[in-house]
Recover the amino acids of this structure.
C-alpha cells in the first residue's frame, strides 16, 4: 500500500517538473499530467510541502529525516486526495471558463488569501477569541454541572431536560434575542451564543462518564468506606476523563460554529469584525474569491482546534485508555 | 470454644425482583479457617460473600462478628478488617501498580510515607517487585490478579473474602496462584471465605468445603477436608485428594439433581498438566 503511494507520488513529482505550464488543449486523457500542472501552480509554502517533496524521491534533501513521518499512509492518502481534488477543480474552472465571481479556482483563492491576509487574519483572531472564551466557559460549566448531576439524581432529573431544551433550540433563532439583550457588549453576546452550542456535548458526555464507573470498583470504594469526595476524585472523575475529553473534541468545533453564527446574526463590523463578518461583506460585494479565502482560514482554524484537542486527549489518556493504546493484534 | 469469627444466623436475601438468592443460611466460620463455597451458578455463593462484606442488606437473619451481633444495619461498623478480591482484578486503569495497591490506605487517609513500605511489602508477598510503576494494561491476567490480591493484603486484613478470584485465569496460572495463596495463608492465617465453582481448587485450598445449591440458594453439604498443611503438589495427585474431590462432586451432583450416571466429574485436570 505504502509502496503504491510512494510510486504515485514520485510519478506526480516527475510530471510536475516536466509540465511547467498548463496547455490550453489539455484533455481528460492526460489528466495525470494536468494534475501535475495544477499541483505545480499551487503555492506550496510551509515545511509540510517541503517534506512531501523530500519524501517523494529526493534522497539528497536535508529533510530526509522527516521522510518516515510524511510517508505515513495517514498523511499521504488524504494528502493525495486533496491534491487531486484541487487539481481537478483548477482544471475544471479553467476549461469551463466559469467566472471567478461564481467559482474561483484554488490558485486564485490562494492569491486572494495572500493579498487579503492583512484584513482577514485579524478578523480570524477576533473569532478565535470568542471561540476560545466560549469553549473554556463551556468546558468548565459542563464539567461542574455534570459533577453536580452525579452527586444528586434529583438535581439531574430536574435540570437535565432544560439543558436538552437549550441544546435543541436552534442557535440561529435565539441569537438575535441574545444580541438584543447584550447590545452594549457584542463580545459577551457572541460568547453566550457560542457557549450555548458548545456546552451540551461536554455536559452530556461527562455525565455519562461519571455514571459509567466500573461496578466492582464502586463496590471496592464502598468496602473501604470511601466518602463521597474520595469516590468522586479518585474514581468518578478519572473514569469520566475519556468521556470529558471526547466532549471537548466535539465542543471545540461547535464553539467555532457558534461564534460564526453569532457573528452572522450580529453583522457588526468595525475593528472588532470577526471572520464571519468578512465573509458576509465579501458576499455583498460579490468578492467570491475573498469569501473562499476567509472560508479557507475558518476551516483551517477548525481543523487546528480539532487536532489540538485530539493531541491533548491522546497525551492525557496515552498510557491507559483503550482508545489510545496501540494493540499488537 | 471461642466464638466463631463469622457467624451467619438464618440469613436470607431476596432481591427486589423476587429472586430468592439465599434462604435461611447458617454458617459458623472459626478464626483462621480457609472455607470454600462451591456450587452451581445462581446458588448464592457470591451473594453470601457480598453480604459478609456489607455490600447489600440482609432480608432477614443476622451476621455476627466474633460474637458481636450486627443486625440489618445499612452500613455496619465491621469488627475485623475485611478485604475483598473480586473475580475481575478491578484495578484503576489510570493508576500504576503502586497506586492501585496503595488505594485502600489512601482511602483510609494514611500518608504516603507511611503507606509506601506496606505497599512494597504486599507487592513482595505476591511476587510483583519490580512492577511498581507498570500500568495494569501492561500486565498479564495472572499478574493483574496478583495486584488485586496485593491490594487486599496491604491493609493486613483479618478476613479475606475472595469471589472466584482465579476463575478467569488459565489452568497453569491458576494452580500456581493457588499454591502461592496457600503459602501466604499459612504465614498470615487470615480467615478466608473463598467462592469458586472449581472443585479441585476448593479441595486443594480449604479446611472445609461448603456445597451450595440453587433456587433457592442454600447449603446442602459441609465437608471438612482433613489433610495436613503444607499441601505440596504431591497432595494434588494423592488418593486422599481424589476421594475428597469425588465426594464434593457427588454432593454437588445431588444438589443439582443430576442422575448419578451422568458424568459430572471430568478427568483430573491437574493430572493432565503433568
Amino acid at each position: 500500500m505504502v509502496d503504491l503511494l510512494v510510486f504515485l507520488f514520485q510519478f506526480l513529482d516527475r510530471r510536475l517538473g516536466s509540465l511547467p505550464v498548463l496547455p490550453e488543449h489539455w484533455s481528460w486523457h492526460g489528466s495525470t499530467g494536468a494534475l501535475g500542472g495544477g499541483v505545480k501552480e499551487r503555492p506550496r509554502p510551509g515545511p509540510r510541502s517541503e517534506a512531501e517533496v523530500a519524501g517523494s524521491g529526493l534522497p539528497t534533501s536535508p529533510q530526509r529525516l522527516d521522510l518516515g513521518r510524511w510517508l505515513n499512509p495517514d498523511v499521504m492518502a488524504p494528502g493525495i486526495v486533496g491534491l487531486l481534488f484541487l487539481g481537478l477543480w483548477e482544471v475544471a474552472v479553467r476549461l469551463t471558463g466559469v467566472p471567478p465571481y461564481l467559482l474561483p479556482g484554488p490558485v486564485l483563492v490562494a492569491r486572494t488569501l495572500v493579498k487579503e491576509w492583512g484584513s482577514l487574519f485579524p478578523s480570524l483572531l477576533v473569532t478565535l477569541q470568542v471561540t476560545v472564551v466560549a469553549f473554556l466557559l463551556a468546558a468548565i460549566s459542563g464539567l461542574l454541572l455534570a459533577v453536580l448531576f452525579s452527586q444528586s439524581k434529583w438535581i439531574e432529573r430536574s435540570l437535565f431536560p432544560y439543558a436538552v431544551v437549550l441544546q435543541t433550540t436552534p442557535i440561529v433563532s435565539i441569537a438575535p434575542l441574545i444580541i438584543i439583550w447584550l447590545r452594549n457588549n457584542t463580545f459577551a453576546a457572541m460568547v453566550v451564543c457560542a457557549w450555548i452550542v458548545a456546552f451540551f456535548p461536554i455536559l452530556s458526555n461527562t455525565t455519562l462518564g461519571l455514571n459509567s464507573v466500573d461496578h466492582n470498583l464502586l463496590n471496592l470504594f464502598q468496602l473501604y468506606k470511601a466518602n463521597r469526595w474520595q469516590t468522586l476524585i479518585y474514581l468518578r472523575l478519572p473514569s469520566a476523563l475519556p468521556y470529558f475529553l471526547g466532549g471537548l473534541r466535539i465542543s471545540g468545533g461547535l464553539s467555532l460554529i457558534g461564534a460564526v453564527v453569532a457573528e452572522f446574526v450580529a453583522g457588526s463590523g468595525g475593528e472588532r469584525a470577526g471572520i464571519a463578518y468578512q465573509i458576509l461583506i465579501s458576499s455583498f460585494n460579490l468578492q467570491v474569491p475573498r469569501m473562499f479565502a476567509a472560508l479557507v482560514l475558518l476551516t483551517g482554524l477548525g481543523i487546528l482546534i480539532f487536532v489540538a484537542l485530539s493531541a491533548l486527549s491522546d497525551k492525557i489518556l496515552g498510557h491507559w485508555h483503550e482508545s489510545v493504546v496501540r494493540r499488537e493484534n | 470454644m471461642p466464638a466463631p469469627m463469622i457467624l451467619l444466623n438464618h440469613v436470607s436475601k431476596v432481591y427486589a425482583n423476587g429472586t430468592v438468592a439465599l434462604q435461611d443460611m447458617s454458617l459458623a466460620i472459626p478464626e483462621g479457617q480457609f472455607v470454600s463455597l462451591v456450587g452451581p451458578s445462581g446458588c448464592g455463593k457470591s451473594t453470601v460473600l457480598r453480604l459478609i462484606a456489607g455490600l447489600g442488606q440482609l432480608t432477614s437473619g443476622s451476621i455476627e462478628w466474633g460474637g458481636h451481633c450486627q443486625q440489618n444495619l445499612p452500613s455496619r461498623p465491621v469488627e475485623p478488617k475485611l478485604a475483598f478480591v473480586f473475580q475481575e482484578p478491578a484495578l484503576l486503569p489510570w493508576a500504576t501498580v503502586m497506586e492501585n495497591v496503595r488505594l485502600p490506605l489512601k482511602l483510609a487517609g494514611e500518608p504516603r510515607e507511611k503507606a509506601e513500605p506496606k505497599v512494597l511489602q504486599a507487592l513482595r508477598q505476591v511476587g510483583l517487585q519490580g512492577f511498581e510503576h507498570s500500568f495494569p494494561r501492561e500486565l498479564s491476567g495472572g499478574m493483574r490478579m496478583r495486584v488485586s490480591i496485593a491490594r487486599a493484603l496491604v491493609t493486613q486484613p483479618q478476613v479475606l473474602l475472595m469471589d472466584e478470584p482465579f476463575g478467569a485465569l488459565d489452568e497453569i496460572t491458576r494452580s500456581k496462584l493457588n499454591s502461592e495463596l496457600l503459602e501466604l495463608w499459612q504465614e498470615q492465617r487470615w480467615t478466608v471465605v473463598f467462592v469458586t465453582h472449581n472443585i479441585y481448587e476448593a479441595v486443594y485450598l480449604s479446611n472445609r468445603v461448603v456445597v451450595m445449591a440453587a433456587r433457592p440458594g442454600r447449603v446442602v453439604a459441609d465437608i471438612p477436608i482433613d489433610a495436613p498443611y503444607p499441601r505440596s503438589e504431591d497432595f494434588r495427585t494423592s488418593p486422599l485428594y481424589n476421594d475428597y474431590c469425588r465426594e464434593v462432586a457427588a454432593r454437588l451432583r445431588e444438589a443439582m439433581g443430576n442422575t448419578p450416571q451422568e458424568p459430572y466429574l471430568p478427568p483430573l485436570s491437574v493430572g493432565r498438566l503433568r
Notes: Confidence is low (pLDDT under 50) at residues 11-63 of chain A. The radius of gyration of chain A is 25 Å. The interface with chain B takes residues 214, 216-217, 219-226, 230, 234-235, 238, 241, 319-321, 325 of chain A (CB under 8 Å).
